[in-house]
Amino acid sequence: MNILVLNAGSSSQKSCLYAIDNALDDARGSGLPCEPPEPIWEAQIDWLPQEKSARLTVHTSTGKQLKETVAACDRADDRADDRAETLSYLLSLLTHGPTQVIASLEEIDVVGHRVVHGGQDYSESVLITPAVKAAIARLSVLAPSHNPANLEGIALMEKLLGDLPQVAVFDTAFHSQMPEVAATYPGPYDWLAQGIRRYGFHGISHQYCMQRAAQILQRPVDELRLIICHLGNGGSLAAVKNGRSVDTTMGFTPLEGLMMGTRSGSVDPGILIHLMRQGQSADEIDRLLNKGSGLQGISGISHDLREIGEAIAQGNPRAKLALDLYIHRLKSCVGAMLMSLGGVDAIVFTAGIGEHAPQIRAAACEGMAFLGVALDAAANENAPVDTDIATVDSAVRVLVIKTQEDWAIAQACWQLIG
């Protein structure tokens, strides 16, 4: 079975093709994923709005590679068509040129989409129908940078592949069974009836890392208490107990919680009221919180920790404050997850920063020394993915896991279609 996965982010579009055989049958019902296979084709589009272009990167399991930059439209009313045209071109590289891996798109059996917001409607992956598309569109107001892009990908697949089965895998689904006390905001009770509640995000990643952690530790999922740190340009923590999410840092939207690359994370809502009374519009405040805050906003340099590190080495005080603040907020949120669990068996670091920033892992774990958390310094500095970097006598295991959202989406497609 050939499974195409489309994973649309706010600033990028990842795509990959898996050729799946019957190996997944053995993993069904086991509660553990089988070893993630390598996609036969992987690609990414990075949208570069300031340069009015898009950077395409493609590589295959046989070692073929392609890198290309294509012009992108700078008019807002044409951006959706432009993104669809760029994605369509990218998918043509499946069947043409040096990165060809299949003879035609008709060889694709199913398409899986990461859909960021499923609201209260969806607690598991589903086949995409007109009703599902309508729900994704309705929920776009809660994920305006993501759900519209998901719908664009679905529409493009319908155009290119007709009535081929498509599957929506929701980022909110894993958190949909959080206890009511963790999902409810302390505002008017009527908010719940309006759908104003804590949903949580990065659920595909958190669920995969939960399963992978159980596999690495060789313990059943339903016996583990985990704090999973998904740290990328967007970031969230999840408290996972006995195989279920019991708390998480993101809430009604992906803005709550941790300080992130360009997002503020949680701030005093009184600040927003103050800014509105000073004349700033809702759109202006939305841009500030989502695009002009976090590491970017504090440092004034970049959302990228590597560039911030370079600035710190040159004595930049704002860069130093940005890093210190990031770590401070991370520790604070880890503490909240710890209290929701009442203890912890393992800390998991994943995503771009979690997998590749040993100084962040070390700083976070230093704050948990009172729990008996002890890092192996050498293992932390040179950590391969999917490994335990705690010392032998550490009371809590510390894992670095490569998140495999695309593989998790492929598995969901297999379970529904295979």
TrEMBL record:
Annotated ATP binding sites: K14, H230, L231, G232, N233, G234, D304, L305, R306, G352, I353, G354, E355, H356
Compartment list: Cytoplasm
Binding residue positions for Mg(2+): N7, E405
Active site positions, chain numbering: D171 (proton donor/acceptor)
Keywords, sorted A to Z: ATP-binding, Cytoplasm, Kinase, Magnesium, Metal-binding, Nucleotide-binding, Transferase
Cofactor: how and how many bound: Mg(2+). Can also accept Mn(2+).
Gene3D superfamilies: 3.30.420.40
CDD domains in the cross-refs: ASKHA_NBD_AcK_PK (cd24010)
Pathway(s) annotated for this protein in UniProt: Metabolic intermediate biosynthesis; acetyl-CoA biosynthesis; acetyl-CoA from acetate: step 1/2
Listed GO biological process terms: acetate metabolic process; acetyl-CoA biosynthetic process
One GO MF term attached to the UniProt entry: magnesium ion binding
GO annotations of cellular component type: cytoplasm
Family: Belongs to the acetokinase family.
NCBIfam families: ackA (TIGR00016)
Purpose: Catalyzes the formation of acetyl phosphate from acetate and ATP. Can also catalyze the reverse reaction.
Protein name (Swiss-Prot/TrEMBL): Acetate kinase
Name of the gene encoding the protein in the UniProt record: ackA
